[in-house]
Amino acid sequence: MRKMTDDERARMQTILRMVRAQQDEKDSIKLNQLAIENTYPVGIHLEKALADPGSSFDITLREGDRLIVPEYNGTVRVSGNVMFPNTVAYEEGKDYKYFVNQAGGFGNRAKKSKTYVIYMNGTISQVGHGTKIEPGCEIVVPTKSKKEPFNWGVLATLGSSMASLATLVLAITKL
Q1: Angle at 67 between CA 63 and CA 70, to 5 degrees
Q2: Structure pTM?
Q3: How far, in Å, CA of 35 to CA of 175, rounded?
Q4: Cα–Cα distance between 51 and 67 in angstroms, integer?
Q5: Among 97, 99, 111, which Cα is nearest to 141's?
Q6: What does the chain look like in DSSP terms, one character per residue?
């Protein structure tokens, strides 16, 4: 966990203002409910950093950083648009679909192609062929937004208006 600097906080506030200005009322996340925290997670690959000092995996620590080493967790949490969100026992070598099926399968409005995994080290990865599932991770299945039914009344009004306008144009040109 890393403490946010004043510059980082100002940048986040600017980004939130820009996103709020462009937010569609259909968005599933209400940005007004989001708060900027004092800390944020930094996903690291500790084993790779220790194996190759000075590499891009070897992140420089800042004052106030906290290194959190979680206890082993032999489960996988499955949440989002699945039939029964729950936590299931980890089984080595199984893909994400196995664990989703352990939660009853995808829900009716699941965005299957946008499913992602949150690993214990804080990194996030969109699932795909060969995505590795590890003990303690969480598989999240997002929900499709509700489609608005087609409004035939608007189409009829628009058609009627266009017909009236065409009639008016014809009448004016014959004068």
Answers
A1: 165
A2: 0.64
A3: 65
A4: 18
A5: 111
A6: -EEPPHHHHHHHHHHHHHHHHH--TT-SS-GGG----SEE-----HHHHHHSTTSTTSPPP-TT-----PPP--EEEEEESBSS-EEEE--TT--HHHHHHHTTSB-TTB-GGG-EEE-TTS-EEE--TTPPP-TT-EEEE-BPPPPPPP-HHHHHHHHHHHHHHHHHHHHHHT-
Cβ partners under 8 Å of residue 45, min gap 6? 57, 121, 123
Question: 75 phi and psi, to 5 degrees?
Answer: -130, 170
pLDDT per residue over 15-37, tens digit each? 877 877 776 655 555 555 556 67
Q: What is the pLDDT of residues 81-105, one digit of tens each?
A: 999 999 999 999 999 999 999 999 9
Torsion of CA 11, 18, 25, 86, to 10 degrees: -20
Query: Of 62, 18, 60, which Cα lies nearest the Cα of 39?
Result: 62
90 alpha-carbon distance from chain centroid: 23
